[in-house]
């Protein structure tokens, strides 16, 4: 992908996000989708695809951690930092041990985050 195409794609996505809160929701929903796919591939025994989707989910959690504002967010930001870091641990365990139980925990947390975020932001 050329630089211009990448920039064009980014700008197209960026203009489709009406509110910054929508981006967080999209990240949560993407992480949920990728975690479900990783679970599917563990069940099917497709290691390559499992790793691919665990890495994608991990990257989303890393981005969420990097976007936290500890000054404005206060205790909530610190709580989310710990929660996101723990999800990264669970994803690593799921990857190494090939166990869906860890992904089930991540899925449960993501569903809770999505529900809470929608309530908080009115999305």
Automatic annotation (TrEMBL):
This is Flagellar export chaperone FliS. Coiled coil: none annotated. Belongs to the FliS family. One of its GO terms (cellular component) is cytosol. The gene is fliS. It comes from the Bacteria. It is found in: Cytoplasm, Cytosol. Keywords: Bacterial flagellum biogenesis, Cell projection, Chaperone, Cilium, Cytoplasm, Flagellum. Transmembrane segments: none annotated. GO terms for biological process: bacterial-type flagellum assembly; bacterial-type flagellum-dependent cell motility. It holds the Pfam family FliS. CDD domains: FliS.
